Structure prediction request, 321 residues.
Amino acid sequence: MKGRTGGLGARNTPWQWGQHLAIAAAYGAVYEIARHLSFPQWMLTSGLRLAALLLLPIRYWPALALGEGLPLLEDSVANAHDMGLPWAISASVPMVVLWMAALKPMRRRWSAYDERGGVRLPLILAAALVTAVITAIATLLTALAAILQTPTGAWPDPATGPMGYFLAYSLGAYLGALTLTPTILALHERFRSLRGQPLTVAGIVRSPLFKDVVAWLLPTLAALLWVSLETHDDFVRQAARLALLLPVLAMAVRHGWHGTAIGGMAASVALAVDAAVTSPGLLAEASTIRVEAVLALVISGSLLVGYRVPAARAAASAQRL
Prediction:
């Protein structure tokens, strides 16, 4: 996981330049999809960004900045007249560049893999927490630059205030990181466990993890989401949202941290759909935010517990792809 520090130097061959451009294009395309699916309490871009910074060698990081920066620059130029120059400057800075300042020292000092070759999950969670705070601060400053251009210069929701938005943005970035990053790392670890053997559809279908996901995880989450969206009783709705945590814990018990990653991603998506439907405003309702905070704690705790699983059991689980 420790990447080389070489950047886009003058000695790069056309093939190496092509690699950088291909990474920038691929990352930029996926980033745009994640950006349009995100909202303040569920920043899916955080998970994509963190996984890319953890898995790619450092020499490819400038390609990530290019892929993320071009769409932001286009939006900033298009909306600078309405939002103001300070907002345009702030909004055009790729978040991945700010994250690099925090993650590069971590990548240099520690490897994301432990001595057993497994993912060092405490480090991943620490990186997710640090980058979530960075995201909240940067997003808040960008929003403030736009608010100061309005006639009143007031927050859209005075009752929430800057601190409320800061906490919401922090939670959204952290939960977004937990939604994608552990799943990507788990699938990467399982692919590595094949040791050169081909990955087949039949092998995936026979996987106990895949069977559990299809047989009961997704149907259970879909049923709970339906109850939450259809009921008119606030108590029943909140109970259904909290019940989304149970399949995550069940997956953690059955499949270790890989099960937590997959189950947590599915539960996060279900909760995000619920929030998008029931809270059309900028911020979700307080009851939804509380469930999201509990979900983030459950996923984090289950990942840490799963990390302590003995090496032999973890290896056996990873080989059952």
User: Anything to note?
Assistant: The mean pLDDT is 85.
